[in-house]
Specification:
409 residues, alpha+beta, Butyryl-CoA Dehydrogenase, subunit A, domain 2, Butyryl-CoA Dehydrogenase, subunit A, domain 3, 3 domains, five-stranded mixed beta barrel, two-stranded antiparallel sheet, 14% strand
Length: 409
């Protein structure tokens, strides 16, 4: 996808690339359009087939005026299409994937779908790659955790292995609950995606609409934390390029930025709630899962989590009574809490399953994972971190960041 432009990253409606209808087309086989413009962040820049957005001449402004076009690198006569790779990006990570800046100099292109549906079609692909970003981060977390576990079990310090020291054991289990919690959210999202692809029930579509940005927001952020902690646990070797940790850390960071950085994704969650009723679908699913718990040890905790879910739903509904700026202030913390309560619900469901299996399962292992996750992420911040409505940052932003005097009165 050649999507981003200098002036239009998250604000795709600012796209300035122009699509001009070719006068020598018309048989339906040859490219019908020429594209003129610059694309700023083109991942897989050496691709044979490119999908990009452009605004046909005379089309309206904003995303509604964008069409989707397919641009081949090589034309049917064997000549190279008219676009130039100006330079490759010197990126922090994902260096094995060439990313460049491209100028389209009348590149021949095929129209894909209706001209006024380009952004909608591109968004469908972006939502899928948001799921990929979450699962890619999960993979980095799992690899980093295993690297740390193997290292700490093999290195002897002060007469015993690192993994036998209490602080290190706590740190390893801390990473473990991150991995298993994020795995629960990632694979639940994948399961809903599969159901949508197979029969497309409306409730599943609404559920997928909110699970996708939730996973994209939460899992890559935790991926940054886990890969960095795992690097530290290897000591100086983790900081050296001879080992995998430095590359894992660099490569994991891109998933936070790619396909929408954190604030953009949080605002997408808000759109899903406001326009499509997606929050109701999520809260309904969580309620059903928690109500289905029957194991005596699980039920009290499930009820506790249900109370927290109800409180979160009330907070979300209360945002509608605030002005637009004030409603944004607690949103990031509330979205994070939404992801965390989804995760702990899924972990409790998994714990219920393992407990019902008796000796054939893992006993109370998953139950302990669920409790540790609840204590680590939810109970320490009952209302969710950064989820307050304190207007200080709005009233005094310039004075605070520019070191200006704020009068005592």
């Amino acid at each position: 996808m050649f999507l981003t432009e200098k002036q239009g990253g998250s604000d795709v409606g600012l796209t300035t690339t122009v699509a001009k209808l070719r006068s020598d087309s018309g048989d339906g086989l040859q490219p019908e359009w020429e594209l003129w413009g610059d694309k700023w962040f083109c991942s897989n820049v050496s691709a044979d087939i490119i999908l990009t957005l452009a605004r046909p001449e005379g089309a309206p402004a904003g995303t509604r005026g964008l069409g989707l076009f397919l641009v081949p690198k090589i034309l049917e006569d064997g000549t190279r299409n008219a676009f130039t790779i100006n330079r490759l990006k010197d990126k922090l990570g994902t260096r094995s994937l060439a990313t460049g800046e491209v100028t389209l100099n009348g590149a021949q292109a095929y129209q894909v779908g209706a001209l006024n549906r380009g952004f909608v079609q591109m968004t469908e692909m972006i939502n899928l790659t948001r799921v990929w970003a979450a699962i890619g981060s999960l993979a980095a977390m799992r690899r980093s955790y295993l690297e740390a576990l193997v290292h700490t079990r093999g290195r002897v310090v002060f007469g015993r292995t690192l993994a036998e020291h209490p602080l290190m054991r706590r740190q390893l289990v801390d990473l473990l609950i991150e991995v298993e919690g994020c795995a629960a959210l990632a694979f639940e999202t994948a399961a809903v995606l599969e159901r949508v692809d197979s029969h497309g029930a409306e409730e599943d579509q609404r559920l997928l609409r909110i699970l996708t940005p939730l996973g994209k927001y939460y899992i890559p952020k935790r991926g940054e934390y886990v890969t960095l902690e795992a690097l530290e646990m290897r000591g100086g070797n983790g900081y050296a390029e001879d080992w995998v940790n430095a590359r894992m850390l660099r490569d994991s960071i891109v998933n936070v930025v790619w396909e929408g950085s954190s604030n953009v994704i949080v605002l997408d969650v808000a759109r899903a709630m406001a326009r499509e009723g997606a929050a109701a679908a999520l809260f309904s699913m969580l309620h059903q899962r928690l109500q289905s718990c029957q194991q005596p040890v699980v039920v009290p905790v499930a009820r506790q989590v249900q109370t927290l879910v109800n409180q979160l739903a009330e907070r979300m509904q209360g945002l509608a009574s605030l002005d637009a700026d004030s409603a944004q202030l607690p949103l990031r913390g509330l979205v994070e809490r939404m992801a965390q309560l989804t995760i702990v619900t899924l972990l409790l469901e998994q714990a219920e399953f393992e407990l019902l299996r008796g000796s054939e399962g893992t006993g109370k292992r998953k139950w302990l994972i669920a409790l540790l996750y609840l204590q680590r992420h939810v109970l320490v911040h009952p209302d969710g971190w950064a989820a307050d409505n304190d207007p200080t940052v709005l009233k005094y932003f310039d004075e605070l960041v520019d070191w200006h005097t704020i009068p005592l009165d």
